[in-house]
Amino acid sequence: MVRIVALIISIVLQIIAASFALSNMKLTRYRLSWILLSLSFVFMAVRKIIQLSENLRGTPSYTWQMIDEWLGVVVSFMIIVGVILIREIFYSLKRAEIDRIRTERKVLNAVINTEENEKRRFAKDLHDGLGPILSTVKMSLTTLSDRITDPTSLSILSNTNHLVNEAIGTIKDISNNMSPHVLSNFGLGSAISTFVSKIKQTGTVDIDFKTNMEGRRLENDKEVVIYRAVCELINNSIRHSGASKIEIELNKHEKFVTLQFNDNGRGFDMSTLAMEESKGMGLSNIETRVKTVGGAFILESTPGKGTNALIKVTE
Question: What pTM did the predictor assign?
Fold first, then answer.
């Protein structure tokens, strides 16, 4: 009786398995491997039905026993062939995942390139549009200074001339920050060095920058991504961590480039990173940009022990 109950349960389970397998054929695009595995479940259920009928009848039939044995051979053959062929499904899934990643990278690259092109266009329009106008205003003020003798008017004119000079300098800084000509003309090492020098002039933080990439170039998109990442990391350290010392190392190795960033700021709890929108989005953007060029971004921080970041990009 126990054997009969076990056979009935086995038949029910195998029928359910066969039903699910057959219903998923469309998802596998009717690949032979899945068809064979699905049919093997069906034949396994048939074998159990034969065994159940033989037990209920009480007198085993030689013919049905032979049919059962040969069905076992067929099932074994179908499982072996199905398992061998099913690798094609896994390869297809792997290829689909690779294609998805490539597509995502292409889309992100297109977005980043469009963003950089717009920044270059805006920087050029700002420099070429407002720059000459302010220069003309400055020339006019200089001409007026030769004709005005009243001390009060001269003071106002001098102050106005000073403001125009500040405006011209601000436009140059904004234009250069949006599209640094040093990066496009001289490369990543020079661009970072120039940016670091400007930050150090403010006296806000002491930055030690070392590199072995003087005169060496990378692909334009990789240089842009690393440069933007460094700027974002420095800004984060100044705005959020209260760091007084930052160390940056940009090194070219045999097949890849690494950028190591360390500060002595207050650090933060990595688990709360996503909750801090302004900081989280900036660091998330760095990771996204680095991934678009096939690189890796590793960030480590502990409260009271500063922040460490590593960017690694293949050449």
Answer: 0.60
